[in-house]
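Translate sequence into structure tokens.
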Amino acid sequence: MRDAQMKYQNVIFDLDGTLIDTDNAVLKTWERTLRECSFGYSQNELQRVLGVTEQAALRALNICPDEKFSNKWMRNYALFGGEAKYFAGVEEMLLRLKRSCHTVGVVTSRYRSECDLFFTHLQFDKYFDLVVCADDTERHKPFPAPLQKYMSLLKTCPCDCIYIGDMPTDIRCAKAAETASGLALWGKKNKNTTGDADYIFYHPADVFGNAGPCGAERVRG
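Result follows.
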């Protein structure tokens, strides 16, 4: 039986920073790879590359590397990718959603090759019905294309979906795709920001709390 508090049949998540803790591994990889290419950036300066595709990150940094950059990045991430792990409480929350007969999925800016190479230990097949990666659409978050692709594959509509992420690009993607949006703060050091999300989640268990239709603090509508 579905949990009475859960309004949305399709619960879709961002990956990095929302379900799994990869920030340190990603920042270490960018710092090392850029240093090999003679670009000096601190991890603090590289915060802006979190949650976006490689090409979007390079544009944000105003860098045009050679054609070997992607291979260098992947080689360096292999040194740190094993550090990725689910945030505390996330696996329990995902399993509860599955037991409640919800469709659970991921829309990520990661490429599928990265997921296959670095995240097999996280057992995506155990938790997710569908994973949409950066390879699956020409346009990426904050554009709505990734969520639209997800809904098209499942033949569902925006009114039955919520997209939960930790970055402004996730919320903007949800708004553009006309789904409900949830801001996941359980992996954030600063929990004072709400952005434009419809719901705020301070802990994975909040997905099944009593504060609103999705168990979160509702901030809009």
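Note: Confidence is low (pLDDT under 50) at residues 1-5, 210-215.
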